[in-house]
Design the sequence.
C-alpha cells in the first residue's frame, strides 16, 4: 500500500511541476553543443538548392518532442533554399510530416511541387529503404496528394539516393538505424538525424564511427538549433520544464537513497 | 511436405538475396527490386490477417462478457477510422485527419508521457547506491541529467565535458561490445534460418 | 560453360561483382565457415556448458509462481521487432519452452503482440508446445492475440491486460523500444516477477532498474538455446564466441598497427590503413 501511495505522490509532484514550468513562459539560455553545431554547419555548408530527403520516422506519441526538432530543421533547410522531399516510414508520421513541411514552407514562401514535395508513407521500412536505393519513382509512383512522380518539377532527375545530398531522418525510435544499415551501408547515402533524447545514446556509436554524419538530439538539441537559426520555438519553451524535471528526478534519487540508508542503519542497529 | 516447400523457398531466396548484395549488375538490382515489392505486398496481406483476427477475437470476447467496455471501444475505433477515411477522405480538413490529430495523437502522446512518470518512480525506487559500482552508476546518471538540462553548462564548465566523456568513452565502449554481440547473434540466427536449422519461424521445430 | 567458369566470370567482371564489397564478402565467408564448423562439429565435443545466468534459472520459478497463485503468465515480444528479427526468433524459442511448462501446470498463458505474423507464428509455436506436453485441450488461441501495430497503442493494450489480469509473472523478451519502461513499471506495480531480455541497448537500462531479471543482448540467444535444449543453438553461441575472439584479435592488431604507424609517421604509406 505504501508503495502505491508513494508512487502516486511522485506522479502528482511531477505533474504539478511540469504544468507550472510550462505555463510560466520562462525561456532558459542553452549553450550550443558541438554536436548540434555540426548538424547546423552541415546543412549550412550544402550548396544552395541541394536536395534533402526528409523522412518522418516517428509516431504521433512523440509529437511534443519531435515537432520542435522537425520545425527547426525544416526552417533551416528552407531558409537555405534547399529542395526537400518528404516521406514517412511510419504511418502516423505521414500526416504530421506533411503538416510540418507545409507550415515551414509557408513561412519561407516555398511552393509545393517546385521547392518541395511530399511522397507520403511506405510500409515495411527495410523494404522501402532498399527499394528507394534502386529507384525512388518506382517506390513512390505518386506523391502524397496522388500526383504522378514525373509531374513534380522538384523531383526532376531524382531517381536514387545518388541524387540527394543527404537523408534527414526525424525519428523517435530505431528507424534511423535502418537508414544507416541499408541506406548508408548499401547505397552510400549520407545520413543525418534529429532524434528524441531517449534515442541519443543509441546513435552515439554510429556517429563516432562516421556511419551517421551528424545528429541533433531531444528538446535540448532543438532549443540549441533554434538559437542557431535565431528562431525560438517549442524547444526553448520546453527547456525550463525539462530542467526542472531532471532536477526533480535527482531529488527523488537522493530521497530514495536517503530512505535506503536510514532503513539499513536501523536494521544494523537491531 | 508444406514445411519442406517453405524451407526450400527460404533457402533459395536467402542465397539469391545474399549473392545479389555483392553485385551491381542490372539483373541483380532487378531481382532485388522485385523481391522488395513482393515483400510489401505480402505485408499488406499480413496486416489484413491481423485486423480480421483482432475483430473476430474481440467479437467473441464481448460475447463471453469479458472486458466488454474496453473491447467495444476498440472495435468502434477500428471501424470509425476507415469509415471516416472512405466518406471524407484523408486530406486536410477531413474527419479522418481531425480524429487523428485531436483524438489519436493526444492519446498516444499521453501514453508516451507516462514514461516520464515511470522514470520518476523507477529512479526513486530502483536507483540505490547498494554497492560501489551502483554508486558510480548513480553518480554518472546525475552528471548526465545535469548536463542535459539548461543549468548544466552555467553550473560548471567541466560538467558537460565530463558527461560527454562518460557517454563517448566508457558508455560507448560497453554499447559497442553489446552491439557486436547482437550483430553476431543476428548473423548466426539468419544463417541458421537460411540453411533450415532454425525452424521456429515456421511455427515449430519438426 | 561449367558452373565454375560462370563463377569465375561473375567474380572478375566488375559489372557482376562490386569490388567495394570485397571486405564484407571476406568477413561473411569467414563467419559462415566458423558457424558451420561450430554447428557440425558439435557432436564430437559432447554437451556445451553455459555459464550460469540468473534470469534463466528464474524462468522455472516464474512459471511455478503463476501456478501457485492461480494467475496467468504474460509473455510479450515488444513492439520493435518483426518475425525476421533474430531476437524475435530467439524469443519464440523461449516461448515454446514456457508454453510447454504452462501446459503441464495448467497455467494460463497470455501473449499480446503488435505484429500479425508474429501472432500467427506464436499461435503455432504454442499449439505445438501444448501438444508436446500432452495437453492440447488446454490451448487457448484467443490468448495469443494481435492488439495493434501502433507503438503506444500496443503499450496501452498490454498495460491494460497487465492491470486487469494481474499476471503473477511477466516475460518481456524480444525487441523493445520506448514502451519498455511503461510495461515493466506496470508489471512491477502489480508485484509480478519480471524477466526481461532485449537487444535494444537503451532499453536494457530501464529493464535492469524495473525488472527482477534481465537478459542482456546476446544472453537472449543463449537463453533460447539453453531452455529449448537445442544443441544447434548452443553451437551457434559457441560460433559467436569464436567470432568474438577473432574480432577482438583484429581490434588489437588494428590498434597496435595504427599506433606504430602514427609513431613512425608511416600512416600515409601503410598499405592497409585501419
Sequence:
Amino acid at each position: 500500500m505504501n508503495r502505491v501511495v508513494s508512487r502516486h505522490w511522485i506522479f502528482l509532484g511531477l505533474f504539478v511541476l511540469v504544468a507550472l514550468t510550462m505555463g510560466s513562459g520562462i525561456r532558459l539560455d542553452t549553450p550550443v553543443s558541438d554536436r548540434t553545431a555540426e548538424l547546423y554547419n552541415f546543412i549550412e555548408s550544402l550548396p544552395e538548392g541541394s536536395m534533402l530527403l526528409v523522412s518522418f520516422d516517428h509516431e504521433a506519441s512523440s509529437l511534443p518532442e519531435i515537432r520542435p526538432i522537425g520545425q527547426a530543421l525544416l526552417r533551416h533547410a528552407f531558409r537555405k533554399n534547399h529542395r526537400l522531399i518528404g516521406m514517412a516510414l511510419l504511418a502516423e508520421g505521414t500526416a504530421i510530416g506533411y503538416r510540418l513541411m507545409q507550415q515551414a514552407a509557408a513561412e519561407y514562401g516555398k511552393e509545393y511541387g517546385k521547392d518541395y514535395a511530399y511522397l507520403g508513407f511506405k510500409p515495411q521500412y527495410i523494404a522501402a529503404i532498399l527499394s528507394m536505393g534502386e529507384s525512388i519513382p518506382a517506390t513512390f509512383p505518386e506523391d502524397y496528394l496522388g500526383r504522378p512522380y514525373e509531374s513534380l518539377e522538384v523531383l526532376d532527375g531524382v531517381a536514387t539516393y545518388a541524387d540527394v545530398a543527404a537523408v534527414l531522418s526525424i525519428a523517435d525510435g530505431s528507424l534511423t538505424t535502418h537508414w544507416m544499415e541499408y541506406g548508408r551501408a548499401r547505397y552510400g547515402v549520407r545520413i543525418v538525424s534529429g532524434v528524441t533524447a531517449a534515442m541519443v545514446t543509441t546513435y552515439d556509436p554510429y556517429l563516432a564511427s562516421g556511419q551517421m554524419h551528424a545528429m541533433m538530439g531531444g528538446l535540448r538539441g532543438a532549443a540549441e538549433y533554434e538559437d542557431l537559426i535565431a528562431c525560438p520555438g517549442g524547444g526553448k519553451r520546453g527547456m525550463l520544464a525539462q530542467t526542472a524535471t531532471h532536477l526533480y528526478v535527482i531529488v527523488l534519487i537522493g530521497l530514495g537513497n536517503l530512505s535506503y540508508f536510514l532503513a539499513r542503519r536501523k536494521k544494523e542497529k537491531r | 511436405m508444406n514445411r519442406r516447400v517453405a524451407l526450400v523457398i527460404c533457402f533459395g531466396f536467402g542465397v539469391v538475396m545474399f549473392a545479389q548484395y555483392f553485385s551491381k549488375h542490372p539483373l541483380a538490382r532487378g531481382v532485388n527490386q522485385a523481391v522488395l515489392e513482393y515483400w510489401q505486398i505480402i505485408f499488406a496481406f499480413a496486416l489484413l490477417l491481423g485486423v480480421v483476427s483482432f475483430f473476430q477475437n474481440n467479437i467473441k470476447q464481448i460475447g463471453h462478457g469479458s472486458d466488454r467496455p474496453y473491447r467495444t471501444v476498440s472495435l468502434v475505433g477500428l471501424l470509425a477510422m476507415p469509415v471516416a477515411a472512405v466518406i471524407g477522405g484523408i486530406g486536410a480538413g477531413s474527419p479522418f485527419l481531425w480524429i487523428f490529430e485531436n483524438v489519436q495523437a493526444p492519446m498516444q502522446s499521453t501514453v508516451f508521457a507516462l514514461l516520464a512518470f515511470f522514470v520518476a518512480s523507477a529512479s526513486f525506487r530502483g536507483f540505490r547506491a547498494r554497492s560501489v559500482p551502483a554508486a558510480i552508476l548513480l553518480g554518472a546518471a546525475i552528471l548526465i541529467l545535469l548536463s542535459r538540462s539548461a543549468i548544466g553548462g552555467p553550473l560548471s564548465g567541466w560538467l558537460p565535458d565530463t558527461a560527454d566523456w562518460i557517454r563517448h568513452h566508457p558508455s560507448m565502449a560497453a554499447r559497442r561490445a553489446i552491439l557486436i554481440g547482437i550483430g553476431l547473434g543476428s548473423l548466426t540466427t539468419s544463417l541458421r534460418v537460411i540453411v533450415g536449422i532454425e525452424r521456429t519461424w515456421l511455427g515449430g521445430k519438426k | 560453360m561449367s558452373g565454375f567458369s560462370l563463377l569465375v566470370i561473375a567474380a572478375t567482371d566488375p559489372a557482376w561483382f562490386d569490388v567495394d564489397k570485397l571486405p564484407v564478402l571476406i568477413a561473411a565467408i569467414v563467419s559462415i565457415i566458423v558457424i558451420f564448423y561450430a554447428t557440425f562439429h558439435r557432436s564430437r565435443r559432447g554437451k556445451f556448458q553455459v555459464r550460469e545466468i540468473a534470469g534463466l534459472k528464474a524462468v522455472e520459478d516464474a512459471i511455478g509462481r503463476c501456478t501457485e497463485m492461480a494467475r496467468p503468465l504474460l509473455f510479450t515480444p515488444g513492439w520493435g521487432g518483426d518475425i525476421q528479427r533474430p531476437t524475435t526468433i530467439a524469443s519464440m524459442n523461449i516461448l515454446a519452452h514456457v508454453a510447454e511448462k504452462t501446459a503441464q501446470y495448467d497455467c494460463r498463458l497470455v501473449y499480446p503482440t503488435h505484429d500479425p505474423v508474429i501472432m500467427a507464428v506464436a499461435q503455432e509455436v504454442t499449439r505445438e508446445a501444448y501438444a508436446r506436453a500432452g495437453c492440447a485441450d488446454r490451448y487457448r488461441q484467443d490468448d495469443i492475440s494481435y492488439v495493434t501495430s501502433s507503438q503506444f497503442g500496443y503499450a496501452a493494450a498490454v498495460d491494460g491486460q497487465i492491470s486487469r489480469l494481474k499476471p503473477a509473472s511477466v516475460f518481456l523478451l524480444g525487441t523493445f523500444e520506448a514502451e519498455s519502461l511503461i510495461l515493466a513499471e506496470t508489471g512491477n506495480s502489480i508485484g509480478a516477477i519480471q524477466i526481461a531480455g532485449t537487444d535494444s541497448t537503451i532499453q536494457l537500462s530501464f529493464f535492469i532498474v524495473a525488472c527482477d531479471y534481465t537478459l542482456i543482448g546476446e544472453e537472449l540467444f543463449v537463453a533460447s538455446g539453453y531452455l529449448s535444449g537445442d544443441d544447434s543453438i548452443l553451437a551457434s553461441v559457441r560460433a559467436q564466441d569464436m567470432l568474438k575472439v577473432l574480432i577482438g584479435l583484429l581490434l588489437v592488431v588494428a590498434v597496435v598497427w595504427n599506433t606504430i604507424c602514427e609513431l613512425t609517421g608511416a600512416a600515409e604509406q601503410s598499405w592497409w590503413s585501419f
In short: Residues 152 and 158 of chain B are 9 Å apart (CA to CA).
